Amino acid sequence: xxxxxxxxxxxxxxxxxxxxxxxxxxxxxxxxxxxxxxxxxxxxxxxxxxxxxxxxxxxxxxxxxxxxxxxxxxxxxxxxxxxxxxxxxxxxxxxxxxxxxxxxxxxxxxxxxxxxxxxxxxxxxxxxxxxxxxxxxxxxxxxxxxxxxxxxxxxxxxxxxxxxxxxxxxxxxxxxxxxxxxxxxxxxxxxxxxxxxxxxxxxxxxxxxxxxxxxxxxxxxxxxxxxxxxxxxxxxxxxxxxxxxxxxxxxxxxxxxxxxxxxxxxxxxxxxxxxxxxxxxxxxxxxxxxxxxxxxxxxxxxxxxxxxxxxxxxxxxxxxx
Length: 321
Fold this sequence. Notes:
By secondary structure, the protein is α/β, with parallel strands linked by helices. It has twelve helices and nine strands. It has two domains: 211 residues, Spore Coat Polysaccharide Biosynthesis Protein SpsA, Chain A; 96 residues, no CATH class. Strands 1, 2, 3, 4, 5, 6, 7, 8 and 9 form a nine-stranded mixed beta sheet that branches. β1, α1 and β2 form a beta-alpha-beta unit. The longest helix has 20 residues. About 2% of the residues have low confidence.
């Protein structure tokens, strides 16, 4: 096989039901100079078998079978094996539109980008629900990208983009002994140190399917203790780059958001949650001012969150959320 231009990495873990849909969407790309790397991260179902079937049928598909080490470690394994000049990550329960790789690759080349981000389309119950777009399109430098990653409106995840493989050679992944509940912001903040130019485009390049068993939605691994390590590492990265003071407000909003919606139980007298409770919210949107006050009263916050989730479930069932 010739050296490909783009390597698409698909980690597989307990997503047999959706895996063929995902792989087929990558095979169907209008841009054909692609290799597809399927990382069987200790899948407990038949995901690894399905991956091997595809590898036998397509010359540009290869499979890595490994012991489960978490999503970040699976992506790292795929990137190490990748031969392409550019990297794209796709979760195995999602898909990409047929023009996704073509669009992002052309933007990288035309605009001389290290990373090109597109927007996303949310699917609920297998049906298109709504578009998720960047607040604005344009170009960002390294520091601007870092600040955007801490913005509550940011939609830059570990998918929905193409980036030069060379930037992934840097130390951006979390220590292998930690399995974080969400590595997107962590990895991207680390990655932002090594980029010069990022492009944001409101052209949908990723189909994000609601999956109640996913790590981000189910809350697996989400404890106050593991988030303590997470935020300690993020703060260290920002401090090393002399950005912590400048970006403290954005980091505090992230802490408030995580403490409010992603961690139970919480102890507002300890660590990063204590920092969130005591932070200055005078320049923050009203949402964060309210949540910060509620953090001091966990029982009241729980009631608020339960009501919030009840409303969301109703909207999900009606396909309006």
